Amino acid sequence: MSDKTPDQQPQPAFMVNAQYIKDLSFELPNAPAVFADMQSKTPEIEIQVNLNAANVQDNLFEAVLALRVTGTAEGKPAFILELSYAGLFTISVPQEHLEQALFIECPRLLFPFARAIVADVSRDGGLPPLVLQPIDFIAMYHQRMERMAAQGNA
């Protein structure tokens, strides 16, 4: 047993304080005709992923995983699903590791919950559940760094 008092316990470097739906929208713009269109052909699906982060106070940060999933069938919009899923994180890491924590670790922790919401909303909207494939947030981070470096050189 340790002789340390609770005040002397080391604080975690990374902690999830809360997770929440910041914004959610689902549309079937051509219902009910879209259901007939999807009977004859599987819709083409496009997924856009955006990551944002902001300092709330001291070591408290909000990270937002924004997903936009659109489907077209027979050349017409079948569905539009937009989700901004956020989390509040306490992050106490050296400054040089902060961006990686915000743009790799935070979305990695948020993604499974956002994925479940997308599946549930698409199913509840009358479609088959849309199960998103895993996202490589490390590769996204490196692409972001390359874009920022290219913009800095332009």
How would you portray this structure in words?
The protein is α+β, with helices and mostly antiparallel strands and 154 residues long. The protein has one domain (21-148): SecB-like (Bacterial Protein-export protein SecB), CATH 3.10.420.10. It has helices at 33-40, 95-124, 137-153, and strands spanning 14-27, 44-57, 60-73, 76-91. The protein has a 4-stranded antiparallel sheet. The chain is elongated, with a radius of gyration of 20 Å. It starts with 13 loop residues before the first strand and ends with a helix. The model has no long low-confidence stretch (mean pLDDT 90).
Count of DSSP helices? 3
Number of domains: 1
The CATH architecture category equals Roll
Level-1 CATH class name: Alpha Beta
CATH topology: Bacterial Protein-export protein SecB
Strand order of the biggest β-sheet: 1-4-3-2
Taking Cα atoms only, what radius of gyration do you get, to the nearest Å? 20 Å
What's the shape? elongated
Q: Report the order of strands and helices.
A: EHEEEHH
Q: Low-confidence segments, ≥5 residues, pLDDT <50?
A: none
Percentage of residues in strands: 35-45%
The CATH superfamily is SecB-like
* Distance, first to last CA: 59 Å
For the largest beta-sheet, the strand count, sense and barrel status come to: 4 strands, antiparallel
The residue-averaged pLDDT reads: 90
Quaternary structure: single chain
Helical percentage: 25-40%
Structural class: alpha+beta
Number-wise, the strands total 4
Spell out the blueprint of helices and strands:
Layout: E1 14-27, H1 33-40, E2 44-57, E3 60-73, E4 76-91, H2 95-124, H3 137-153
Antiparallel strand pairs: 1-4, 2-3, 3-4
Helix pairs in contact: 2-3
